[in-house]
Amino acid sequence: MDRNQKSEVVTTLNATFAEIGVVVVTRNLGMTVAQSTVLRQKMRDAGATFKVTKNKLAVIALKDTQYEPISDLLTGPVALATSADPVAAAKVAVEFAKTNDKLEIVGGAMGATLLDVEGVKALASMPSLDELRAKIIGLVQAPATKLATVIQTPASQLARVFNAYAEKEAA
């Protein structure tokens, strides 16, 4: 990499750190290209990214961001999993690490909060932002549906009674 490319990588990473909700630091010793491709595809499907970067460039990009505390985790061959949804990157990384022993979770950060391995696993066990939104909508919508059913039930019972009287008089 020449100096301009390094500067571009640092600028891109710094912009990424300003927009994301979580960073998961992973160590990927001996992962094949096929395994990395599968992991990247799973990350993309979840709305996250998985990027191998030079540690020195990542440390420079982390300066003056809320994720600066993870600089100490960037030693050896590491990769960064990031996502705007605070759960997506952690969930995919933890699930992939369960099936592939070559991917090791080192730690991470959610905003200014530094996470250890157990913190990342706990974060991965939480429902995603979309799942939480769906639950909230379901909870808000349920009382209205029940109310409409309760209001409609007496009217339908009255209609059946009137229909029964009409059939009785017709006979």
Task: Please give a structural write-up.
The longest helix is centred in the C-terminal third of the chain and has 42 residues, at 129-170. The chain contains 6 helices and 5 strands. The termini are far apart. With 171 residues, it is an alpha+beta fold. The mean pLDDT is 86. It has a 5-stranded antiparallel beta sheet. The protein has helices spanning 3-19, 33-45, 55-62, 88-99, 117-124, 129-170, and strands at 22-28, 48-52, 78-83, 103-110, 113-115. 58% of the residues lie in helices and 17% in strands. α1 (3-19) crosses α3 and α4 (88-99) crosses α5 (117-124).
CA(first)-CA(last) distance? 95 Å
Q: What is the β-strand count?
A: 5
- Structural class designation: alpha+beta
Summarize the main sheet. Answer: 5 strands, antiparallel
Q: What strand line-up does the widest sheet have?
A: 2-3-1-4-5
Structure annotation, total helices: 6
Helix/strand order, N-terminal first: HEHEHEHEEHH
pLDDT averaged residue by residue: 86
The helix content, as a percent range, equals 55-70%
Instruction: Assign an overall shape.
Output: elongated
Share of residues in strands: 15-25%
Radius of gyration: 26 Å
Taking pLDDT < 50 over at least 5 consecutive residues as the criterion, the unreliable ranges are: none
Give a short overview.
The protein is of the alpha+beta class and about 170 residues long. It is built from 6 helices and 5 strands; from the N terminus they run αβαβαβαββαα. A hairpin with a 2-residue loop joins β4 (about 105-110) and β5.
